[in-house]
Write a structure and sequence with these properties.
- The chain contains 16 helices and 10 strands.
- By secondary structure, the protein is an alpha/beta fold.
- The protein folds into 2 domains: 202 residues, D-Maltodextrin-Binding Protein, domain 2; 93 residues, D-Maltodextrin-Binding Protein, domain 2 (3-Layer(aba) Sandwich), CATH 3.40.190.10.
- Strands 2-1-3-10-4 form a 5-stranded mixed β-sheet, sandwiched between helices. The chain has a 3-stranded antiparallel β-sheet with strand order 8-5-9, with helices on both faces. It has a two-stranded parallel sheet with strand order 6-7.
- Helix 4 packs across helix 5, helix 11 runs parallel beside helix 16 and helix 12 crosses helix 13.
């Protein structure tokens, strides 16, 4: 009888010990946290995310990141606000639009701080006068493709009242529509802008050389998650920043990832797309204050306080702990 009791005690103790060991496993040994990250379109400003995923940098942070194409920045921002995304890759214009409609989003990092759109026109449109009364296709209303139309039109001595704006979704669809004459013009960025040039599509206005400060492609979250899911967001930002450094330093690997994710077959387009990324991307994904102020100037009538749309506290924490310095030393930048 004592032998049976002793054997049972041994089994119970072994089971308890196993449970304790499972509970005490380090975070890296546990199941990764799933993160749903939306993008407005597969473009080169997403390269830091693609690289971080491809190189296992998110996985090293205990994250499993699913990158989802939302076919429009404002549409993705709305999905984020509704709780169907965890993070969204979108410009500050969409954040302003959502927040002024009752949302509560914040930009916590930036992957591009200048405008990267070129304004292409249909075959029959060669002059500003031929654009009047025509349809301009944008991804979604309130997105960067929408807000920067105002600047492009100003270069042509036109206003938004001179044209009709319509939502047309992703860049490839807009390129097809402008080539066929279905719409009269549309803004495109890389790699689709280079594809349009190789196909002989007419350029009306190129805003890229002007290097206009603009929070063009940012990392956006719900404000409540900055405190409520701080650890997850810090880990995501770490993976993204290192992915950005890796992309800036390893051209061969970055081009391989771009070619795969953006389906680029033309070596010339690939070169232009990567060089555009390298010239424009802030290594530490810091947010441009002049860029944010330029966007706010396009949206009069609401709050002009940056803190209602931008929160740089997580980046400040990473800088204070020496993460930026560590990346600079690791990648010799």
């Amino acid at each position: 009888m004592p032998t049976k009791i002793h054997a049972r005690c041994v089994r119970v103790c072994a089971a308890v010990l196993a449970l304790v060991l499972v509970a005490w496993r380090p975070a890296t040994a546990q199941e990764p946290i799933e993160v749903k990250a939306g993008i407005s379109d597969p473009v080169n400003t997403v390269l830091a995310w693609y690289m971080a995923r491809d190189a296992g940098l998110y996985a090293a942070e205990g994250l499993k990141v699913d990158i989802v194409n939302m076919n429009g920045g404002s549409r993705g921002a709305a999905e984020l606000q509704a709780g169907r995304l965890d993070i969204m890759h979108v410009g500050l214009s969409s954040v302003i639009r959502i927040n002024r409609a009752g949302g509560d989003l914040r930009t916590i990092g930036s992957l591009s701080n200048v405008i990267r759109f070129t304004f292409f026109s249909a075959p029959a449109v060669k002059t500003p006068a031929e654009l009047k009364g025509g349809v301009i296709g944008v991804s979604t209303f309130g997105s960067e493709s929408d807000s920067t139309v105002t600047l492009a039109l100003a270069r042509l001595a036109l206003t938004r009242n001179d044209v009709v704006l319509k939502e047309y979704g992703g860049g490839m669809r807009r390129l097809d529509a402008v080539k066929s004459g279905e719409i009269k013009a549309t803004p495109l960025n890389e790699p689709i802008a280079s594809l349009a040039r190789t196909q002989g599509v007419n350029v009306l206005v190129d805003l890229v050389p002007e290097q206009i400060p603009w929070v063009f492609s940012s990392i956006v979250v719900r404000r409540g998650d900055i405190a409520g899911r701080r650890d997850l967001l810090i880990r995501f930002l770490k993976g993204t920043i290192e992915g950005n450094y890796l992309a800036l330093n390893d051209e061969k690997r970055a081009k391989e990832v771009l070619a795969k994710e953006l389906k680029i077959a033309d070596p010339k387009v690939l070169d232009i797309t990567y060089n555009d990324f390298k010239a424009q991307s802030p290594a530490n994904i810091e947010i441009s204050q002049p860029g944010a102020e330029n966007i706010l100037a396009q949206f009069p009538g609401g709050s002009q306080m940056l803190e209602d749309y931008v929160d740089a506290s997580l980046l400040a924490a990473l800088k204070a702990e020496g993460y930026f310095t560590a990346m600079q030393q690791k990648y010799r930048r």
